């Protein structure tokens, strides 16, 4: 007797091979049968004619760390077929955390979301997740930015030997608690102040404990080549597995650098360095508006940043640097996607240039004033990439799919603002636009890039394939109708064609609707 049978469905097993039509039987949290099932004894039977079945999608680049505690249903992820997320990316993790970063986030998350941050280590975070329950499986990376700020503050200095020992101890403790590796956000403070020697030493600890090093490189535009070389050097020095996050060429003047990027990565792979990358299927990125500021502004943390923005001399210095770096057209390609205060809600959805015009302000004054008024909590979408380059990246056999987004919803506190459409549509977009319409690759290849490939990369066992004995994380979709409906103008739209999502054997999405089930689990590297 099975708990669930899916009959006569086209199966893509996640390994990249040819699909086949058969049945799948699920009992408890496991796939018990892949093959013809003659005795239809089951609590529930799904008729699979005209549908495709594959492993649940694995989002290797997620930012749901806090969002899963705010809304454990993970609506925007599970409704697009995601059954497992890897969080703690770009150097920021919910744990381990202490000192200034903890105090700052306690205040923000209590005021904005009503969330109590009552943990400091990864063990405490995992316990809280387990108490609340979640609808997706979740793995955690240790964020270097978070650890460095917890130990040293957000300061521009070299760590002392004691600082390094403390960071190593914190990372080891997190790895012992189940973390799958360490992420570094070189583009953000305080990791922007870290030299590669510091990170290489910490990566040796990660490598020793079987983890992976993921990184948002230092610069994805003007110094893209040097930034790729830097992380390859770190991987070479530490012998750690390297995952380059959201590989891109940002800024039209940098689009021609892609071939050189491929040469660097592929040469390193030929030399025996273990490298892979991920990418989302969109040509706009999403991060805070403060990312436009020069690194020196962040020395000392958020209060110092705001103090410098307010100060006449340093404020003008910042404006002068921005004037040299960005043109009027550049500002027209940056869209304000979310603010906190009601006062500035009217500018959500407007470019920086249009927002400044709306308020009758100079562009640079608009940027500085907005960051001050919003206490640096301003999200922006940056239209800086090239479709052809993106497709070249997606096709590479060492590139998998990641959304670079946190789990959001259409309503409530996680329904605020205009999130990047990738938050709601990454994986269906690959199936629709780049498989069905443009035939960039076939369904088997796309599904491999979204299932078993990221599982293998992170070291997640017994998931990512439709295989007897594996955990029953399954997506059933209509290949003719699956589509991403989210847009930049109207992003909070769930996809079409994702019929069923099964997480650890339980139906979590049924005919496109969330069932309220929370059978996701915290996964670790053991």
Tell me about this structure:
- The chain has 526 residues and is an alpha/beta fold.
- The protein has two domains: 55-283 and 384-513, Metal-dependent hydrolases (TIM Barrel); 288-383, no CATH class.
- Helices cover 35% and strands 19% of the residues.
- The strands form four sheets. Strands 1, 2, 3, 4, 5, 18, 19, 20 and 21 form a nine-stranded mixed sheet that branches. The protein has a six-stranded parallel sheet with strand order 9-10-11-12-13-17, sandwiched between helices. Strands 6-7-8 form a three-stranded parallel sheet, covered by helices on one side.
- α6 runs parallel beside α7.
Secondary structure: elements and pairs:
Elements: E1 2-11, E2 20-27, E3 30-34, E4 42-47, E5 52-55, E6 57-59, H1 67-70, H2 75-78, E7 82-87, H3 99-113, H4 122-132, E8 137-140, E9 142-143, H5 144-152, H6 161-176, E10 181-185, H7 196-208, E11 212-216, H8 224-238, E12 241-244, H9 258-270, E13 275-279, E14 284-288, H10 302-310, H11 312-325, H12 328-332, E15 334-338, H13 352-358, H14 363-373, E16 379-383, H15 387-395, E17 399-401, H16 422-437, H17 443-450, H18 452-458, E18 474-477, E19 498-503, E20 506-510, E21 513-514
Parallel strand pairs: 1-4, 1-5, 6-7, 7-8, 9-10, 10-11, 11-12, 12-13, 13-17
Antiparallel strand pairs: 1-2, 2-3, 5-18, 14-16, 15-16, 18-19, 19-20, 20-21
Strand pairing plus helix content: what structural class?
A: alpha/beta
Shape: globular
Main pleated-sheet profile: 9 strands, mixed
Indicate the mean pLDDT. Answer: 98
Q: Low-confidence runs (pLDDT<50, min 5 residues)? A: none
Query: How much of the residues is beta strand, in percent?
Result: 15-25%
CATH homologous superfamily placement of the largest domain: Metal-dependent hydrolases
Helix tally equals: 18
CATH architectural name of the largest domain: Alpha-Beta Barrel
Q: How many domain regions?
A: 2
| CATH class membership of the largest domain | Alpha Beta
Helix residue percentage: 25-40%
What is the number of beta strands?
Answer: 21
Straight-line distance between termini: 31 Å
CATH topology of the largest domain: TIM Barrel
Radius of gyration: 23 Å
